[in-house]
Amino acid sequence: GDPLEKAALQVLPWTLTKGDVAMCKTAKLSLKILKRFHFNSALKRMSVIVSKQDSSYNIQHLVMCKGAPEVIKTMLKEIPDNYDEVHTEYSLQGGRVIALARKELGGSDLVVRDVAREDAEKDLEFAGFVVFTAPLKKESKSAISMLKESSHYCIMITGDSPLTACYVAQQLRIAKKLLILTKNDKDGHWYWESPDKSIKFEIGEEQRSYSLCLTGEGMNYAIDTKDKKSTSLFSKIVKRIKVFARVTPKQKEVVITTLKSQGMVTVMCGDGTNDVGALKHADVGVAIISNAPEVKVEKSPKAIQKRQQAKAEILQQFEQAKRSNDPRQRIINKQRELEDKLKQLQLEEDTLVKLGDASIASPFTSKFSSVKCVCNIIRQGRCTLVTTLQMFKILALNALIIAYCQSALYLDGVKFSDGQATLQGLLLAGCFLFISRSKPLDKLSQSRPHANIFNTYTILTVLLQFAVHFYTLFTLVSRCHELSPRKESVDLEAEFEPNLLNSVVYILSVMLQLNTFVINYRGHPYMESLTENKPLCYSALGTTAIMISMTLGIFPQLNHDFSLVELPEDFRLEVLQGLVLDTVATFLVDKILLYICGDAKLKKID
Question: pTM of the full predicted structure?
Answer without folding.
Answer: 0.73
